[in-house]
Amino acid sequence: MADDKKHAEIDAALVRQLAEILNETDLTEVEVERGELRIRVAREITMHAAPVQYAAAPAPAAAPAAAAAAPVSMPSDPATIVARAGEEVKSPMVGTAYLQASPEAPAFVQPGDKVKKGQTLLIVEAMKTMNPIQAPRDGVVAEILVGDAQPVEFGEPLVLLEA
GO molecular-function annotation terms (predicted)? Predict the structure, then answer.
């Protein structure tokens, strides 16, 4: 019983340390494994947090025009939101997205392509492992939301599928 209490105290301290690491860095998750003990701490980043951070930051004298233009790029227009209606295929991991198997190869898919469930849409490389991201259902690729060789976060939308 005393052993269990000791492990719980160690775990709490480790969780606090991992949370501090997340707060001090741009990481969205961190995982530690010690023997049979495995702890993963993650945080969710929302799209609404970024504009607030930028608005609070002091800007140079020439920046007010650029700051005023920034909200225009956000999808606040209802027509834009409707145009992006569909199912987002999200990244299951942190890594780098690649739109083709090699630099010389054609892209796995293009906007407008019909895809079948299980068809590879792109790959996400994580820790030197290439992970195919497959279509969750039959559909049409409405939009590819990431660029080739772009870093991606866990849960980040990669491809937009329509029926």
Answer: acetyl-CoA carboxylase activity
Domain contains 60: no
Q: How many domains does the chain have?
A: 2
Residue 49 host element (H or E): helix 49-56
Euclidean distance between CA atoms 149 and 152, whole angstroms: 9
DSSP 2-15: HHHHHHHHHHHHHH
Tell me the pTM: 0.50
If you write DSSP's letter for every residue of 19-33 in order, what string do you get? Answer: HHHHHHSS-SEEEEE
For residue 138, what are the domain limits?
80-162
Tens-place pLDDT, residues 52-69: 333 434 444 444 444 444
